[in-house]
Request: fold
Amino acid sequence: NADNLRHAHRMGLIKYRRGSRHQNSKLNEKSVMEIRGEIKRGVTQAQLAKKYNVDPSAISHMWIGDTWKNS
Reply:
């Protein structure tokens, strides 16, 4: 159940898959770096979401640092 999973994560018995290792990831480290560069050059998050086939919230979370912190 959920309590057992939380406990296992806290104890280090199960590790979260992060970044491109996560089974549902549509992005990889290279694309994240490209996206950050494109945002700095003025490309909108909506345009990038369409280009990379992700939800706009994925671009937003990546940009503000909620996700992909180490890329």
Observations:
- Helices lie at 2-10, 29-40, 45-51, 56-64.
- DSSP finds four helices and no strands in the chain.
- Residues 34 and 42 are 13 Å apart (CA to CA).
